[in-house]
Amino acid sequence: MQDKPIALVTGANQGIGLQIAKDLAAHGFTVLVGSRDFERGQVAATEVGADARALQLDVTNPASIAAATERIRAELGRLDVLINNAAISNTNKRPGQSVEEYAKTTRPSNVSLDEMRAVWDTNVFGVLAVYQAMLPLLRQAPAARIVNVSSGVGSLTTNSDPAFPYRAIFGPVYPASKTALNALTLAMALELEPEGIKVNAVSPGFTKTNLNGYAGTETVEEGAREAVRVALLGADGPTGKFTRWENQTIPW
Ligand SMILES: NC(=O)c1ccc[n+]([C@@H]2O[C@H](COP(=O)([O-])OP(=O)(O)OC[C@H]3O[C@@H](n4cnc5c(N)ncnc54)[C@H](OP(=O)(O)O)[C@@H]3O)[C@@H](O)[C@H]2O)c1
């Protein structure tokens, strides 16, 4: 088995995930570039560097997850870092529709259950499915780390504050999927604490990517850095935390 640490980044063919993959490669990792479209993963892997491998991985597809897991087991035998980055913000926002307008059509009273299920399928159940599949490989590593890429918009504490300016867009689809992901993060951290595997959630900040039609204010380099910092935590680092750059705690 190789000495060099091995990382898997889901949804690494573009955006923040691609940048996390590049940064981990620069830190000396063999990087598995997760992509639901294998060819786009191959293009991204070329950008990531010599020791990057495209890995077909659709986090909503059990057969894809099983095949990816088997490939890592057979080729590499373990996983040191898992970055659960893949996510979607919606499936049916109309082109040109603002986030505020979309939020009005996805309130608890009028949200389509199919829309909510589709987003949670990727952002919540997809993360749990990948976690369950990869755990035996993570347990083969000496000090595995899991980073769940969440969002500040999922913070119940922040959204409960009447002074928070963006609370009008808190709703059951994307924001609550990140709240649920935060809950999963804590449950995973508690489960793995006795084994020394650290599980943390991070928020990249409002980053210029496809997810928000490139409306974000941060660069992907800025968006990736907290996930990378947390992936590299030493034995004395925390587990079960939710932070943004640089190590600022976000209330759950
Ligand atoms: N951008 C922001 O402002 C912001 C803020 C807070 C949190 N985040 C979080 O940051 C993470 C990365 O988002 P991003 O902004 O970089 O968005 P992005 O550019 O849209 O990238 C999302 C990635 O997830 C992949 N993906 C979607 N569904 C998938 C599935 N079923 N299986 C595997 N991969 C899938 C996408 O693949 P395709 O290319 O095939 O679609 C893409 O590679 C997400 O967790 C997001 O919620 C982003």
UniProtKB/TrEMBL annotation:
Coiled coil: none annotated. The keyword RNA-binding does not apply. SUPFAM superfamilies: NAD(P)-binding Rossmann-fold domains. CDD domains: carb_red_PTCR-like_SDR_c. The keyword NADP applies. It comes from the Bacteria. InterPro entries: CBR1-like (IPR045313), NAD(P)-bd_dom_sf (IPR036291), Sc_DH/Rdtase_CS (IPR020904), SDR_fam (IPR002347). Keywords: NADP, Oxidoreductase. One of its GO terms (molecular function) is oxidoreductase activity, acting on the CH-OH group of donors, NAD or NADP as acceptor. Belongs to the short-chain dehydrogenases/reductases (SDR) family. This is NAD(P)-dependent dehydrogenase (Short-subunit alcohol dehydrogenase family).
